[in-house]
C-alpha cells in the first residue's frame, strides 16, 4: 500500500484529504499540534482499515519532523508528502504596517522552513519510492496582493518557489504546489473573523482535485484546485 505523510491533518483540508486517501487504501502518518483532535481524526480513519500513525507535534520542531519521517519508514517507506500545516502570522490578519517581525517569522518558520526541513528528511524515502510526490499547499495570496495577507502571502510565495526549484532538482519526483482556493475552515475564520463563510466551499469539495493529481500525475508545477476540478482545465499555472 502507498504511504503518505500529511501535516495539519486534524481538521480542515488535511483531515479531508487524509480521509480520502485512507478510503483508497493509503497508510498514513498524520500530524497536528493538538493531540486530542489528531487522535480523534485518526480514530475516524481507522474505519477504512489502513494503518494510521498519529504523531502529535509542531512542524517547526526538527525532532518532531524526524519522528514523522521515522513513522513513515516504519510503515514501509514514503510515496507522498503533503506540506499542509500553516501559520497566518497574525490572527486576525493585519496590514503590513502592523505585522510584527515575530508574526512574519512564525509564518515563514511554519510555511517555509518547516516544509523544507520535512522535505529534506523525507527525500531519501521519496526517491526510493519510484513514484514519490510532494504536495505543497499554497494559496492565491502567494500571487495576488490582498490587503492584510502580505506576510502569509509572502511565505506561500516562498513555498511556491521552493517547490519549483525542487521540481528541477528532483526530476524523479513529482512536486505540485497547489492553491486549494478559499475554504470554510478555522484558518480562514482566524484570518478574517466574522467574514461571511456561506459562499466558501468545505474542504472536502476540493479533495477530488488532489486525487486527480495522484491519479494522472501531471508534470510538476503550480496548480489550482478549481482548474483541477474542471476536467478540461488541469493546466499547470506555470505552463500558462
Ligand atoms: N482555508 C482557506 O481558505 C485556504 C485558502 C488557501 C490556502 N489554504 C491553505 O490550506 C492549508 C490547510 O488549511 P485549512 O484551512 O484546512 O486550516 P485548518 O482547518 O485551520 O487546519 C490547519 C491544520 O494544521 C494544523 N497545524 C497548524 N499549525 C501547525 C504546526 N505548526 N504544526 C503542526 N500542525 C499544525 C492544525 O492543527 P493544530 O492547530 O492542532 O496544530 C490543523 O490540523 C494551509 O496550508 C492553508 O494555508 C487555506
Automatic annotation (TrEMBL):
Organism ancestry: Bacteria, Bacillati, Actinomycetota, Actinomycetes, Kitasatosporales
Domain of life: Bacteria
Record keywords: Oxidoreductase
EC number: 1.-.-.-
GO function term, MF aspect, one: oxidoreductase activity
Broadest EC class assigned to this enzyme: oxidoreductase
Protein name as annotated: SDR family NAD(P)-dependent oxidoreductase
Record-stated family: Belongs to the short-chain dehydrogenases/reductases (SDR) family.
InterPro entries referenced in this protein's UniProt entry, alphabetically: NAD(P)-bd_dom_sf, Sc_DH/Rdtase_CS, SDR_fam
